[in-house]
Amino acid sequence: MTNCIFCQIIAGVLPSYRIAENKQAIAFLATARDMDGHILVVPRQHIQSILDCDDATLAAVMQLTRQISAHLVQACGYAGVNLLNASGTNAGQSVPHFHIHILPRRTGDGINAWPALPGATEDLATIAQRIRLN
Questions:
Q1: According to CATH, what is the number of the domain 5-131?
Q2: How far apart are CA 8 and CA 40, in angstroms?
Q3: Which of 1, 6, 9, 39 is the most exposed place for a label (fewest CB within 10 A)?
Q4: What is the pLDDT of residue 134?
């Protein structure tokens, strides 16, 4: 897709700092400059969100995500990672190309990657019945 910024990065039209890749996915540094080491892992094929992703592509994206996450902790001195995905504009997806954010964490970095949530209003049994896969 020619107007997709991630597709342009994958095609080499836009510059990027590539971190790793496999046949179906590529990882590069986020250009947002919001934190050191913020990495995006994206499928090479234009797929709008995780909801549209086939199993093989999803597996390739997640395998690369795991490899990079392990490398960050085992070889780069990070204490852990946060993995984030937003699927759909109402969930905060800003680029309509499926991607996983890897946020490398250091002890005491002061980053709160878990937002303050409003609290559940229904009992667990009601929620479970409504959302359970059958």
A1: 3.30.428.10
A2: 14
A3: 1
A4: 82
Question: 46, 71, 99, 101: which is the annotated catalytic residue?
Answer: 99
Q: Give residue 116's pLDDT.
A: 87
What are 18-24's contacts with CB under 8 Å, separation 24+?
Answer: 19/68, 20/64, 20/67, 20/68, 20/71, 21/64, 22/60, 22/63, 22/64, 23/60, 24/56, 24/57, 24/60, 24/61
Whether 99 is a known active-site residue: answer: yes
Confirm whether pTM is higher than 0.90: yes
How far, in Å, are 82, 95, 102 from residue 65 at the CA level?
A: 11, 18, 7
Are 52 and 45 spatial neighbours (Cβ–Cβ below 8 Å)? Answer: no
Annotated domain spans of the chain: 5-131
Percent of the chain, pLDDT > 70?
Answer: 99
